[in-house]
Write a structure and sequence with these properties.
single chain; about 500 residues; alpha/beta; 11-stranded mixed sheet; 4-stranded antiparallel sheet; 12 helices; 23 strands; globular
């Protein structure tokens, strides 16, 4: 397809074989390139055309291939800038691309659905922080929404911008707060690429071939097949809803509200990987922050989430080819959804993904809104992700997680629950410890009395003489209050497989 398009271009009346040098959107003025890794520069030119790139006093040359593609790497270097990068073709000055104000620092990709997409202007702290968002060492790039049936060469974007009140207001609030904290703590330029789409599922962000390699993920394709079969009904429903809106406006009545349903292509396995992530993978990065899961909370999808995410994380790392970079994600918060959604199951799946190396999870069970799927406290979410980055990416000795379930051991008619990440001890915030349940071999859970004993919790219930399983915070919007001494909340969990 690409060769045919190229030949078509050359055969157009008046067309010449002296095509101009083109660069992908991610290579642009004001960008941040990843420190301590080779600097990758690539693009398109006339087939066979010599191309040279100059950056930080170094120049390298190559030739465009038969399809016009070219690619080269420059030496790695430490944080600094601003620098200028020059890309030149055979046409000399007429074919020179100059990228100004380039910084070298750390690049993070922020991805997921609406709670990562949630703009700074909507955050609870926007009035205080947006006026002070000007920071020349923070650079922002937004990838526009694009679903595609194959991996695209370039992302749809306006390019990079310096952080300011104007540029930050439409940017991901979580990602902006994360970037601000990392820049202040690590004293390096930070670039963040916001590639998000509200109301999407994890499998749409995962490469199709990677999903297909795991037979256990066959239900992903069954769900997609069912959605496509229902599409004709959905289109008729959309037309009917629009008719009702038009009639209401014409009659001067308030417009009726209808239940949300997803845009079909944005839920297709691999579709958002193809359009919004694949084009970024030639660009070296420091790591990824991720906030998604709400759309995978349906009963049929939730139990597969850990497997989908392990596939996504492992494959993103392979496709970027810069090592097992930190993948830091947010556990979905407390919310009362409609029927057919099991947020407790999804949270447990997210907790189990921590078994994958170099991952961390920001728990938000204490800062959600039971009545709003989009809680406006994005500051604490960004700070908790930054804590994880400081530990995993930057090697700081900081407590970055609340208590995480490790094991439960029988003790007479009680269970003793052991935790990791119990920095400065365990704390029941607000008084009596709540949120624990126990069950016997029959798996029937009953509320349990729970007391903190050192770095463990002892749980008992008169309704369960011989407890075998324990769980905590097991509800869509649970009442639970276990924290560590650093003020970080414990993750909900169950010991039952």
């Amino acid at each position: 397809m690409r060769l045919r398009n190229l030949l078509f271009l050359f055969l157009l009346p008046g067309a010449t074989l002296c095509a101009q040098i083109t660069l992908p959107k991610v290579l642009a003025s004001h960008m941040v390139v990843q420190r301590d890794l080779p600097v990758h520069v690539w693009g398109m030119a006339t087939p066979g055309e010599p191309v040279s790139v100059s950056f930080r006093g170094e120049s390298r040359s190559t030739k465009a291939g038969p399809l016009g593609r070219w690619s080269l790497y420059l030496k790695p270097g430490g944080a600094g800038g601003p620098f200028q990068m020059t890309v030149q073709g055979a046409g000399g000055a007429s074919e020179t691309r100059t990228l100004d104000d380039v910084l070298v620092g750390d690049v993070w990709v922020a991805s997921g659905q609406s709670n990562m997409e949630f703009e700074m202007r909507k955050a609870a702290t926007a009035a205080d922080d947006l006026p002070h968002a000007a920071n020349p060492r923070i650079r922002l790039m937004i990838v526009k929404k694009k679903a595609a049936g194959y991996a695209l060469d370039d992302a749809d974007s306006e390019g990079w911008a310096v952080s300011s009140p104007e540029t930050a207001k439409e940017f991901s609030a979580v990602a902006w707060y994360f970037a601000r904290e990392i820049e202040q703590r690590e004293k390096v330029p930070v670039g963040v690429i916001d590639s998000t789409w509200g109301g999407t599922v994890a499998e749409s962000w995962t490469r199709l071939a990677a999903l297909g390699e795991d037979a256990a993920l066959a239900p992903v394709f069954v769900s997609w097949g069912r959605m496509t079969e229902r599409e004709s009904d959905a289109q008729l429903e959309d037309k009917d809803q629009q008719r009702q809106r038009d009639e209401a406006r014409a009659a001067g009545r308030p417009e009726p509200k209808f239940p949300w349903h997803p845009e079909l292509l944005s839920w297709g396995p691999g579709m958002l990987w193809n359009g919004m992530i694949a084009p970024l993978t030639p660009f070296p990065i420091r790591g990824v922050i991720w906030y998604q899961g709400e759309s995978n909370s349906q009963t049929e999808r939730g139990p597969l989430y850990d497997r989908v995410m392990r596939t996504l994380i492992g494959d993103w790392r392979r496709q970027w080819g810069v090592g097992d970079f930190p993948f830091l994600y947010v556990q979905i918060s407390n919310f009362n959804p409609g029927p057919g959604e099991t947020w407790a199951v999804l949270r447990e799946q997210q907790r189990r993904t921590l078994g994958l190396a170099n991952t961390a999870m920001a728990v938000t069970i204490d800062i959600g809104n039971p009545d709003d799927v989009h809680p406006t406290n994005k500051l604490d979410v960004g700070l908790r992700l930054a804590l994880a980055a400081r530990a995993l990416a930057y090697g700081e000795d900081v407590s970055y997680s609340g208590p995480m379930y490790r094991q439960a051991t029988p003790e007479g008619s009680a269970l003793r629950v052991w935790f990791n990440h119990h920095a400065k001890g365990l704390v029941a915030k607000g008084g009596v410890l709540t949120g624990f349940e126990v069950a016997g071999k029959d798996g029937q859970f009953s509320p349990a009395a729970a007391t903190i004993d050192g770095n463990t919790v002892l749980v008992t219930s008169p309704a369960v003489v011989e407890p075998v399983y324990v769980r905590y915070g097991w509800a869509n919007s649970p009442q639970c209050n276990l924290f560590n001494g650093e003020g970080l909340p414990a993750s909900p969990f169950t010991s039952q497989n």
